[in-house]
Amino acid sequence: MHCDRVRLLSGDIGDPNREEEQKGGKMSSRWKKRVVSCLLVLTLAATLGLGCGGDEAEGKVTITIGHITDITGPAAPALGPMNWCIDDIVRYINEEDPIPGVTLKVYHFDARYPSRDVPGWDACLNRGAQVVVTPLPTTAQTLKPFAKRDSVPLITLTASQVLIDPPEWVFCMNAPVEYQIKALLKWIWEEGTWDQSQGPAKIGAVGWDEPYVIDMTRGIEDYCTANPTQFTFVAGPRAPMGVTDWSGEVQTLKNCDFVALPQTGLGTSTFAKQYREQGGAATFVGPDGFGAYRGLVVDSVDWDDLDGTLSGNAATRWWGDETGTIVELAERLLIENHPDDAAEVIHSGIGYIGGFHQYYGFLSVLRKALENVAPEDFTGQDFYDTAIAFSEDSWEGYETWEFSATKRYSWNYICVLEWQKETQDLVRIVDEWLPNIVS
Question: Do residues 181 and 170 both lie within one domain?
Answer without folding.
Answer: no
